[in-house]
């Protein structure tokens, strides 16, 4: 069909298929890739454009229906005079993190402000109901919209910009303009000459024997280049596992390397073990042709019994997933002295027991995963572009353990990347498969997942059953804590499978408290669910939920104030470094201070009055506390090695000062929304005492001049990789001073480095050179002291001796409708200490994101499976409910800064650490609201129907 | 990406459209985009879309002879910005439960009847409470069907083959009070539970009442027995409670199996009582 329309005032004419969606026309025909494909069901809003000025989700409209229309995409918003005021306001207010959801949200806001020049906060949140933000929440977006409204009505006055751009300043984030204009290229936006497209077949059975696969019809479909199945990939090795706890027996799968154990193969061979296990792939000229052909592959299955529950899977006679794994048990591990804990419990005045299920969550990043592979026959070089948060490990693991190719023949590049929430920190079989297929067909091959595909092949998380016991004295002192846990890791181990259920949970369960006797025993169990991996807050979220619920129940059993019981048991400032008894040594802090601060801000003293007032309105009001201290800042390498991680965890940087004076820093961090381009430059600018604009960050490409990057996960970037940047800068200064001492013929101790210059103290007017001049002279290398090499560069490593331990207290106030059981979050207060903060605007954004995710876990998010078939039922963003703007009350953030002694920056983790207290604060608030009914615990997500079910037994409902 | 092959036709007259809609495998596209998600999941029997976008007049909204006439292709947003809407509080409040601007722009009244689905449930419920009628064009005539035709005991009833919805007509509001109440918490998940109510009173006595629940069944469901019981009486706390107690399986056959039936029945009772109280506060206070 012929289609004619205007896009960004430019006419387009194209012959198209009637089934083509507007989004695909914009992206594939008009090459306007700023419009993003997120969910495909009109739920997330990343594909929003304006059609004749109206907000439109372009994935929900046929292109032919836009015939004759005027379309505005994100690319059409900025003018020759600069960014649109909405774009500017988003940038100024830190409303952009990874930027994947930004174009769609901005387009929606443009129409809002055209219709309503002065929207209220509620107007904005209602309007944004169609735009999800998974990484940053909505607080800064709402602020940005308000400011944009002021800019558009000339009411905005620019604030006073701080003269300093150093550590501690909210410097506007860098490399953000391309995200605001849609110019940034994410994996789905990439093309290469001659590129083919792949589609991957997933099993619809959670457990079945594969009797046969017939690809003949698919091979005959238009545009099909090759169809691959397991018979083609026998030489491709299984995925490796690189976390093998040395202190317990573990059961992974075999791997031919003999160095590491293995996991699943790129294609299932004998049987499928979860609905999503991949079986075949089609490579075709277009993505549509690849998926059309995929639908023609016929597989004959023999269904087997399914087991989805870890406790069921351990029982004799349960369906067995792997012949080599007795009782489906990957491993059993114990932390702490079980006998001593038993003894303490038996001697305690008060004992509380509770079963807690920390539900299975789905990362559901708005950007799905994708891979673009290429093999250059002339150079024998492989290049892999993928949206991973671990590019160097991809290079190592794929070359060494999966494809068996030289490490130096593989380059991994990360394009612009959407949020990960942890799921992009794994190695999936699709990734080496696409690279391998590219070599087989002799062309670049791209694969971008679908939303349903993502729900079945991308790791999920949490999913742990905990049997808890807390014991103590009548006056509120905790004497013992026991957690017996069962973790559901799904059908196969991911690369770091034991990390989350073992140390990250097991050593973290004491939380912020002094508990003399604590123990944790876990069975990590295979089931027919999607493999599980860490998720934002990983491990710590399960541990903090556990202890914060248990201490709450303990306080209520004693009829004591839960805040006071926390105070009685909290680690005190004079106890640092504090050994928590299970393996962590807390570094610094004043835990009680933030508890008291949060209580004060929540008006805790007037809680009874608040409850009474709410009751008059037909509401049960409750206040919940979530105090936390969590481990962050991975390494130390030796400690992680002791846990079984077969990798170093040090930070690294390479710093290069060009003859022009420009500073290029290659970091081992892998940004995926954390703004290291900004924060690391701030660190370097402060250290080198030069303008931040002189500094460029490099990352996301293994061909950068860096030995190895240990990447970004678990809130490690700033305190480990950032510290390596600082150390590298210090090495640069050291060499500059030594060189100056030689040129100025002065002793080294008389050479000062100040304001980006080396200065000879005795003759500061004459003996002075800028860093640029030093770099130039060292580049010439005409006159060097004995033993000094030319050039001004440095490689630095930083391996902390200990982790760092951010902490804080969050408080939620909820109201529950006494008739509908609807839960409304009325107030949220977060008091955190992330040590020294480099960029408060950035850290606030991460904190809002953590809180939003925690609200989702507490109130709405859960992966649902069909109990009979094992199919994921929540396979889109309609059935898996992510918090939307209107769910959230204004969030109040408070922060103290207690430096960590674990790194020279004094920094502590921030990226995911403030997620763990959120869910327990909310569930504690809900249980507090229902205290008159003696509700001890409610498993998440706490839905109105769950409350109704529980209260059926507790009250006589009168309306 | 849509996996099925499609043919697309956009007739320019109603006559041309009528020639197409009676054919096997043809589906009307009223400018409502809720059909697109279904197409992505696959609709085996469908092969041709018949778009009404080029037929003039189907997007109009006007008042004629006291009636509010809404074209089948009129968007929700176009009614939201129409001055006549404030005469129909139930419809205004139902539309307000759909804050997503995309859905407001690309959901149509014809689409609500042609495609159904949870997005449209509040609006359909309001239209049912307001006794809307639907103008259906066939090759032989131009008839009006009561909107209740499209919901039989909560099940969706399709338009007879060959018919084409051109307009939804709301009668003059007269002295009728109406409202739409919903429960916000569930808006983020699958079901959109709510209730539409309209009534006329003579003093304390209810003359006529409509009660329509949305989100509990495939299509909004009219609580006819409760309406009949309440009509001609005065509302009291006891009669309101008694009405809620009537919400058994016969009156409300729950179709949504993701949420416990008991809770849904309880919620329906709460909504019913709140709706009755909201419009008859003076009577029951």
Automatic annotation (TrEMBL), chain A:
InterPro entries: 2Fe-2S-bd, 2Fe-2S-bd_dom_sf, 2Fe-2S_ferredoxin-like_sf, 2Fe-2S_ferredoxin-type, 2Fe2S_fd_BS, Ald_Oxase/Xan_DH_a/b, Ald_Oxase/Xan_DH_a/b_sf, Ald_Oxase/xanthine_DH-like. Residues 1-77 form the 2Fe-2S ferredoxin-type domain. Keywords: 2Fe-2S, Iron, Iron-sulfur, Metal-binding, Molybdenum, Oxidoreductase. SMART domains: Ald_Xan_dh_C. It comes from the Bacteria. Pfam families: Ald_Xan_dh_C, Fer2, Fer2_2, MoCoBD_1, MoCoBD_2. One of its GO terms (molecular function) is iron ion binding. PANTHER family: ALDEHYDE OXIDASE 1-RELATED, XANTHINE DEHYDROGENASE. Belongs to the xanthine dehydrogenase family. This is Molybdopterin-dependent oxidoreductase. It comes from Spirosoma terrae.
Automatic annotation (TrEMBL), chain B:
One of its GO terms (molecular function) is oxidoreductase activity. Keywords: FAD, Flavoprotein, Oxidoreductase. The keyword Flavoprotein applies. InterPro entries: CO_DH_flav_C, CO_DH_flav_C_dom_sf, Diverse_Substr_Oxidored, FAD-bd_PCMH, FAD-bd_PCMH-like_sf, FAD-bd_PCMH_sub2, Mopterin_DH_FAD-bd. Signal peptide: none annotated. Pfam families: CO_deh_flav_C, FAD_binding_5. Residues 1-175 form the FAD-binding PCMH-type domain. The keyword Oxidoreductase applies. This is FAD-binding PCMH-type domain-containing protein. It comes from Spirosoma terrae.
